[in-house]
Amino acid sequence: MTSFVNIRTVFDSGDRSVAALSKLYQDRRFLNAVIEEVAQPVLTSEKIAGKKVLLKPNWVRHDRIPSDEICLRTHDSFLLAALETVLKRSPKEVLIGDAPIQGCHWSRVVTDQLRETMAKLEERYSVPVSIKDFRRVAFDPALNDASENRRPLDKYLIFDLGPASFLEPITEEGKNNFRVTVYNPDRFIESHSKGMHKYCITRELFETDLVISLPKVKTHQKAGITAALKNIVGLNGDKDFLPHHRIGGTGRGGDCYPGNSRVRYMAELAYDEGNRNKGNFLFTVWTRVAALLWRLSLPSQYDHPGAGWYGNDTTWRMVMDLNQIVYFGTADGGLAPSQQREFYSLSDGIIGGQGDGPLFPDPLPLGVVGFTNSSALNDVCMAHLMGMNVDKIPLLRAAMGFMQSGGQKILLNGEEIGIEDLNNHSVSAVMPPGWVGYEQVN
């Protein structure tokens, strides 16, 4: 199968600014036209009519500052334009869902205004549209308020990749070294050990006929870039199944930070105790102790309690595992030799995110929309457009090596080009603090 990505630039060569590009989100007709252009001739009525369609936006977190509206999540207007593109082709039903971080306030992402607009589209096209929060767990650290088992476990498939997992080479026998920020580390004993690598995948993935992912293109403090590959993490409903790093510095066999700081390691252990006590007063006590110890360790820009740096050797592996499941996973929990479902990504790169992404990005005037059947090829193209060194980003190296087969085709504004031609249209995205100097690393 030929892998393709169809990219449309939406910037004026004389004004590729955040101010100019952000106005495009106010023009739904323009967005509809651009999406129709990049999705043709793939998303035809024949492909969609009578089918169950899953739209997977990037709804990672609610807005905290005004600029988040344009650079943090898939923009509402972009999502609505994508929804209308699908509804015009008479699907049986459309589901829109995601599993944002546990601290996300769902009602501030899926607002009443967004629901009302979706309801109008539902009525206009006479197609049922539903919205689902795929999370099993929500937790507000500021209030120390936990809400668990929000969806029953039978709504998920516990998918065990076993030795086929990309995490297997870094999994130590008899040790529980995997971590994810603000989650109980003991839960990983149940999901990841030598020869066992389980994920909690929402069953909707296996019950729909066609999946369209709608990533927001951003930098990512743990993976370097988040776009099509990383966006599917939101199909996993419980982050207790998602290793993001390994405890300790590189000198101790972990990948949380470089070196072997004893004080920093003590801070990590204190964070673990806090996360074991979410919902009671000890969470606050241990978290404050951990934060104090972390400050006493005099961390540099590469030192981050959540492993937000270029030496993170865990997150990209977890992302690759989930892409294996999305492309090749079967409803009985196996991996097939060929792709199992219609899966596409439609990237919102009109305003991208740069700096300390994915949760604290600054607006990036990227000015592109992309449509693809290959998450790997898409993200390599987006990395070129963001001025990144693709060869120095482990996620992209792994994705191209594992997922790319057959030919590839890159279209830019209707013309077939070579991947290096994208450099002529690139902007220099500011990388996350922990990725400064990543290009010099062997």
Write the layout of secondary structure elements.
Blueprint: E1 3-9, H1 18-22, H2 28-39, H3 45-48, E2 52-57, H4 68-71, H5 76-87, E3 93-98, H6 106-109, H7 112-125, E4 129-133, E5 138-140, E6 145-147, E7 156-160, E8 178-179, H8 188-191, E9 192-193, E10 196-202, H9 204-207, E11 210-214, E12 216-220, E13 224-226, H10 228-231, E14 245-246, H11 262-276, H12 281-296, H13 315-328, E15 342-356, E16 360-364, E17 368-372, H14 375-385, H15 394-403, E18 408-412, E19 415-417
Parallel strand pairs: 1-18, 2-3, 2-11, 3-4, 11-15, 12-15
Antiparallel strand pairs: 1-17, 5-6, 7-10, 8-14, 9-10, 12-13, 15-16, 15-17, 18-19
Helix pairs in contact: 2-5, 5-7, 11-12, 13-15, 14-15
Quick tags:
442 residues, 3-stranded antiparallel sheet, alpha/beta
Number of strands: 19
Number of domains: 2
List the uncertain runs. Answer: none
> Given the structure, what is the number of helices?
15
Shape: globular
Biggest sheet architecture: 12 strands, mixed
- Helix/sheet category: alpha/beta
N-to-C terminal Cα separation, in Å? 33 Å
Helical content band: 25-40%
Radius of gyration: 21 Å
Mean pLDDT: 95
- Strand content of the residues, in percent? 15-25%
